[in-house]
What we know:
With 298 residues, the protein is mainly alpha-helical. It has one domain (3-104, 152-262, 285-297). Helices cover 79% and strands 1% of the residues. It has helices at residues 3-32, 38-60, 70-93, 96-102, 106-117, 124-142, 156-175, 181-202, 209-235, 238-241, 246-260, 266-297; strands spanning 143-144, 148-149. Strands 1-2 form a two-stranded antiparallel ribbon. The two termini are 30 Å apart.
Amino acid sequence: MEPDEKNYWRGLFFLLLMMTVSCFNDIIVKFIGRRLDAFQVIFFRFFFGLVTLLPFIISGGKRIFRTKRPVFNIVRGILGAAGFFLYTCSVIHLPLVEVVTIFWSVPIFVMLLSVRVLKEQIPVSRWAAAVIGFFGLSFISVYDNGTSFSPKMIYIVPVASCVLFAVQDVMIKKNADRENRITMLLYFAAVSSLVSLVPAILVWKTPTPLEYLGLFLLGAGGNLIQYFIFKAFCFAELSSLSPYRYTEFLISAAFAFLLFGEIPGANVLVGALVLIPSTLFLAYTEIRKTVRRRKRVT
């Protein structure tokens, strides 16, 4: 097997690990959210995420605490807490596959924000993909399981979460090259923990030992997702791995059926068939644009 082929399969392996851990995190949230409030869930997610970062913080020493963008880290932490709160509420109260599918709309919002914030020029093909993607998103949120059109206000929650995650992505895109990766994770977890602490205290229920274990795994899983993404894209190009992101939909659908008896409706299946290819196209064109920019620089 050639080295490039080995690296490709290694990249795919880490991508599949990332999607599996992400799905397990959603399952933990759905189970624990039956008794604990979403504010408590996100507090412990960030707190235990911070705890699992301690070995890297200790090994990095004082330099890990040095930041060139304190305001960026604080704002990102606040937005992260708000975004994860909305996402957690969505996972608890909506079918899992629907939430995962709606989350595919994040690249569309990233593109729209990039026009405004980063002053990017967007070709017609990407605008067309965004419009088609919005059609798929709207189909999920207003078409009631293949029976009738009826807008459901609860879907504002996951869509708002997608917008907040998109804002964070644009912020990272604009500032990430100026900050250490561990420093960003440290301040993100610390600020988000502090922001969610007071609301968590107001709705506090003492977790059971099993719930504590689940919450710890949730925090550790959040960091593992970041690590697996980084490793996957170290071994292979994003454009070559993107088609396999469909697997996340299949993994979520399988676990949702086995654990919660959830069966995707016609609205989800049709919406996914429209939304996911649109966002994959946006990801592919973004990668091609980055490659062309690097070639001009070199």
